[in-house]
Amino acid sequence: MASLPLFIKFLLTGFVGILPIIELRGAIPVGVFTFHLSYIESFICSFIGNIIPVYFIVKYIRPLFDFFRRWKIFAVIIDWASEKATKHIESNEKLQNAVSVGLFLFVAIPLPGTGAWVGSLIANFLNVPPKKAIPPIILGVLTAGIIVLALTAMANGGIQYLLQKN
User: Fold this and answer.
1) Which of 8, 68, 112, 125 could form a disulfide with 4 if both were Cys (CB 3.0 to 4.6 A apart)?
2) Distances in Å between the alpha carbon of 5 and those of 12, 34, 44?
3) In degrees, to the nearest 5, what angle opens at C-alpha 67 toward C-alphas 63 and 73?
4) CA separation for the pair 164, 128 (Å, rounded)
5) Confidence band, pLDDT 50/70/90 cuts, at residue 117
6) What is the pTM of this model?
7) Pseudo-torsion of CA 147, 151, 154, 158, nearest 10°?
8) Exposed e or buried b for every residue in 22-54, given b needs 16+ CB within 10 A?
9) Which of 82 and 34 is assigned the larger pLDDT?
């Protein structure tokens, strides 16, 4: 992997960042450990890759829900989730204000299943307009990226320490 051109390493790291579930949480370590990119290069490629799908999910996933709504099992699940979430938020002004903070916190926690993809789906289920949903999701990705970057640097330092001692 070390013999790949730098641009290809950037693209592959960004591509890993685009992938659901893996996202930036996996792309930063891949960039650093597999492609031997610097921490900053890995972070930037991962961040860009991770935020690319956010707008499209927040803005355009509803037609996909409508498509799946043709089948009763999906219709029941989609309608139940949308109605339950929307009803509570529309009836409570405090919840309306907390949605942005909640989206940020949800995406900022660097655990599997709490990234930009799921945060964007949640925003869509809650009928949060893109102008209100995208900024906290991007800030959450940025925060998660900083946390993962710090953890990657600590892991790399620990690995190098162990290799030097043996």
Assistant:
1) 8
2) 11, 13, 17
3) 130
4) 51
5) very high
6) 0.83
7) 180
8) bbbbbbbbbbbeebebeeebbbbbbbbbbbebb
9) 34
Q: Angle between the 72-90 and 93-108 helix axes, to the nearest 10 degrees? A: 120
- Long-range contacts of range 107-110, CB-CB < 8 Å, 24 or more positions apart? 107/136, 107/137, 107/139, 107/140, 107/141, 107/143, 107/144, 108/139, 108/140, 108/141, 108/143, 108/144, 108/147, 109/144, 110/25, 110/144, 110/147, 110/148, 110/151
User: With 0-12 CB in 10 A as exposed, 13-18 as middle and 19+ as buried, what is 93?
Assistant: exposed
Residue 165 pLDDT grade (very low, low, confident, very high; cuts 50, 70, 90): low
Chain length of the chain: 166
Q: Give me the amino acid identity at 51.
A: I
